[in-house]
Amino acid sequence: MNQHVVPTYRERDKASVLHPQTNLLKHLETGPTVITHGDGVYVTDDAGNRYLDSGAGLWCAALGYQNERVARVAHDAMTQLAYFPIFRHQSHGPAIDLSEKLLEIAPVPMSKVLLQCSGSEANDSAVKIVWYYWHGLGKPERRKIITRTGSYHGSTCVTISMTGNPAYHKSFGLPFDGFIHVDSLNYYRSAKPGETEEQFSQRLADSLEATILREGPETVAAFWADPVQGNAGALPPPKGYFEKIQAVLKKYDILFVADEVICGFGRTGEMWGSQVYDLKPDLLVCAKGLSAALLPISALLINEKIFRVMTEESNRIGAFVHGFTYAGHPVACAVALEVLKIYEEMDIVSRVKSLEPAFLGMLDSLKDHPLVGDATGVGLIGGLEIVADKATRKSFGPEVNISGLIEKHARKAGIILRITPGRIAYSPPLIITEDEIAEMGRLTRMALDGAWADVQAASA
To answer: Which of the listed residues 325, 346, 367 is the one where a domain comes to its end?
Structure first.
């Protein structure tokens, strides 16, 4: 008698799930790695393999992969008010409490909070508010948005247009017109011989000003920047960069938006990346660490100058006609509030500062590897430059698939690495210990050794 064979998760996944950021044809052949549970900075797959996650998922699992305390809060919130919108003069306690808390801890004075569901939504909403602001001032021609090469600001059509990485635009008919990308801020890759970081930063600021003048300052609405560039490989800015950039923006009355989706809530060794680099944004976008990825939520913080114009414009046309169904979800707000309480109890900023020397030391210790050209970081975010030749800083060609080789050996070693073209990016859960940081370095070296052996074998 034939027994019914139950398909595995891997087989069922290939038959039903469409995966982001994935080679879809290859996935039909290989299937997924199915993660079944997590504990601290580790996750385990359905084959029993345990991995140290050096990237906190997608930069977001700040408290790791299990938290009963927050689960109880979510349960209690759901039994009290499982859902209610905050549209049309309606509100609820969790949305009010969370908004007040965010205004209290904001790096610069802010006036109001617009709650959303993801970093993409919050950045997309910020673009609309920037345009709304300039319309309210009678300057609708100010529509152009400037971002940097290597930036990532989301996956909506607008935010992917802002993203300074052509790989995200191919075959989508994007980016839209009016989204301008200025120079990469990778000092290691882009500095001229003998150029100091300060001189490099001045050259980038001069290039930004030249771009503004070429486009016409009267047409430029805002400049977007993440304090540390995540998509570029967890890349900190060169010395003096933001001081010089903000001077240019002020000169031409261009709004400044800080994308703190990755950097916010202790990641950089301060509550905000804006505090590390003395940013004075008009709008601030946050997500990821806001709930430690335990539920989807984001927020856009708006200063009084912009809010004042918004109130007048909404009154003129009848309403601020914008919103998402799940924005300000009471359960997500309650979870985010509890996460912020946990950060306070942990003294998350002091904790990250105390771990920073071990983390940066771990990155520096890998600079002697043949594949590593440089290491940079701040707080608990940073990365390694991957090179084919240290002397010339030459990158590997696509035929080598160095990223794929490193990832293959990383999984064998038991570590999840976030590998971008030319860099390995690190942003471990903020609960990581010094011993786990050391282990992260040891496992990374194993992955690099395996990839280097493959490169040598292929060229032999």
So the answer is: 346
Averaged pLDDT for residues 285-289: 98
Domain match, 366 and 331 both: no
159 and 74 within one domain: yes
Domain match, 101 and 190 both: yes
Q: Which domain holds residue 308?
A: 69-346
Could you read off the pLDDT of 145-169 as tens digits, one per residue?
Answer: 999 999 999 999 999 999 999 999 9
> Distance (Å, rounded) from C-alpha 141 to C-alpha 143?
6
C-beta separation of 217 from 95 below 8 A: no
Tokens of 346: 């942990």
CATH of residue 251's domain is 3.40.640.10
**Structural domain ending residue among the three candidates 322, 346, 370:** 346
- Confirm whether 49 is domain-assigned: yes
Which CATH number does the domain housing residue 409 bear?
3.90.1150.10
Burial 384-393 (b: 16+ CB within 10 A, else e): bbbbbebeee
Note the pLDDT tens digit of each residue in 382-406: 999 999 999 999 999 999 999 999 9
Q: Which residues contact 104 (CB under 8 A, 6 or more apart)?
A: none
What are the tokens at 74?
Answer: 């979510």
Residue 236 tokens read as 């900190």
Contact between 269 and 378 (Cβ < 8 Å): yes
* Collapsed DSSP state (helix, strand, coil) of residue 352: helix
Per-residue model confidence (pLDDT) at position 98:
98
pTM of model > 0.90: yes
459 near 421, Cβ under 8 Å? no
Classified as helix, coil or strand, 235 is: strand
Query: CA 245, CA 227: separation in Å to the nearest integer?
Result: 12
